[in-house]
Amino acid sequence: MASVLEAKNLDKYFHKPVEFHVLKEINLTINPGEFVSIIGPSGSGKSTLLYALSSLDREYEGQVLLNGVELKTLTNHDLAHLRNKSIGFIFQFHYLLADFTALDNVMLPGLKLSELPHEELEEKAIKKLDLLGIADQAHKRINRLSGGQQQRVSVARALINEPRIIFCDEPTGNLDSKNATVVFDMLKNLTREFDQTILMVTHDDSFSSKTDRQIQLLDGKIVDRE
Predict the structure, then answer these.
(1) Residue 201 backbone zone (phi > 0: left; psi -120 to 50: alpha; other: beta)
(2) What is the C-alpha to C-alpha distance for residues 173 and 180, in angstroms, rounded to an integer?
(3) What is the pLDDT of residues 186-218, one digit of tens each?
(4) Domain span at residue 202?
(5) In this structure, is residue 21 part of a structural domain?
(6) If I label 166, which of 80, 125, 139, 214 is the partner at 20 to 30 A Cα–Cα?
């Protein structure tokens, strides 16, 4: 089985205010359809690792390969295309456009990719919202939706281009317990029903324990792979 994502001898340094070795000899493989969580105490390097693996940060030593392609070999243009087509992002804060409707927000990555006619893309976006149980909110502006609904819109947005992998940085961290459980269960269902690959940073043990595999970081090193 070909891996979706692979890191080889990944090291990352911060240089200001003083040099700090934040990621140390990271080697990992994420396979298709896996739901993997990255766990560890605050300051262990979880989000830094996620940013490097997801192409948001390319200032590191070593290799990161997505679908067998080494990210640092790509031009900025090719990287932007790969990121839009093959990667979905879900963050703790949804980063949706408040004056746009839920439907408009979901469609944005698809409009940027420009592979589907507008009508077909709109139909696809409605289906993603329906999958997440909020198709009835499609034409409401984001600022009229609840926090839980907004995060579900961000999940739909991450799915619109059928990405190979979705990276999640504390996706439930800004939600109350009820909505956090709803969003987590939706993410888990995506792996079970649609074979979606997900890599999630979380501090919540009750959620990480329900993922397929946990990668534990401590002081920038992987210390456990359950």
Answers:
(1) beta
(2) 7
(3) 999 999 999 999 999 998 899 999 999 999 999
(4) 32-60+70-225
(5) no
(6) 139
Q: Give the model confidence (pLDDT) of 170-187 as tens digits.
A: 888 888 898 889 889 999
* Cis status of the peptide bond prior to 17, with omega within 30 of 0: yes
What residue has token string 């109350």? 176
| Phi, psi (rounded to 5 degrees) for 10 | -85, 125
DSSP-derived 3-state class of residue 98: coil
Per the structure, the count of domains in the chain is: 1
Q: What is the pTM of this model?
A: 0.92
- How many Cβ atoms from other residues are within 10 Å of residue 101's Cβ? 18
Q: How far apart are the first and last CA of the chain?
A: 20
In 3-state terms, what secondary structure has residue 121? helix
Residue 67 CA: distances (Å) to CA of 32, 83, 144, 198: 10, 12, 38, 14
